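Reading a protein record of the kind used here takes only a little practice. The integers have meaning only within a learned vocabulary of local backbone shapes. With that in mind, consider the following protein and its fold in token form:
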Amino acid sequence: MAKKSKVKAPYSEPASKHPNRQRTTKVENDIRVHRIARLLCNAATRSDCIQYASEQWGVCSRTCDSYIKKAREMLCADWEIDRRTFTAQSLSELASLQKEARRTGQYNIALGCINTAAKIVKIYD
């Protein structure tokens, strides 16, 4: 009787916990992070984000936590501008809003824009 030798199979990828799920692409990941960032900007809580991610993408809370972390980093990076740049951008936005308010006859809004711009440049308190 001949001995059977055990031959090891060549290396293969380890089995996934979720064999029916495919990994997301970088683009899909970025879209998800941006969507979570939008939720956070609209005052969503962590549990809101987890529920949304679970329902929309079928991901667990741990995956959603990584999306939340990346979204918060992205939001922080958006606001890392110096004070002069922020002031100039705010004044430009107020000027545009004031023009639109005047055009549509909303003079209280236009006056509010003028007052806010004056406070920003510290003409008066």
The radius of gyration is 26 Å. The chain has a mean pLDDT of 88. The longest helix spans residues 83-103. DSSP finds five helices and no strands in the chain.
